[in-house]
Amino acid sequence: MFNTEHVGRVRVLYKLILRVHRALPAELRVIGDNYARDEFKRHKNCNPQEAAIFLNEWTDYAINLAKQTKPLNQAKQKVVGNYLNPQMLDHMTEDQLVQLYELHKAASQESDEDSKQLPIDTQNQK
User: Fold this and answer.
1) Is residue 117 packed enough to be buried (19+ CB in 10 Å), middle (13-18) or exposed (0-12)?
2) Which of the two ends of the chain, N or C, has the fewest CB atoms closer than 10 A to its terminal CB?
């Protein structure tokens, strides 16, 4: 079991991630919040070695996203996120690859729906 200090750090990190997600567009925020919540729940009872890796990676994510969503960076780059290093795929389990694919599909579906919005036909409205 983990001590209360560890539990406190996990909660602080989780809250930080949700706070950083507030700077994202609404559709990305929903995806990000849901993904983070599921990942934190999924790793609730992991072993200490996995917990250290998990916290390190999510801390890096929070730091990078916070830097990218600063107003000055947004004005310069207008891009959020980083490309995944293809070598990381070699270290992922089959479940992680499936989860990554599902996340990609959900994110792609959101952007497709935004680009396919049709104007409202005002002639058929009463």
Assistant:
1) exposed
2) C
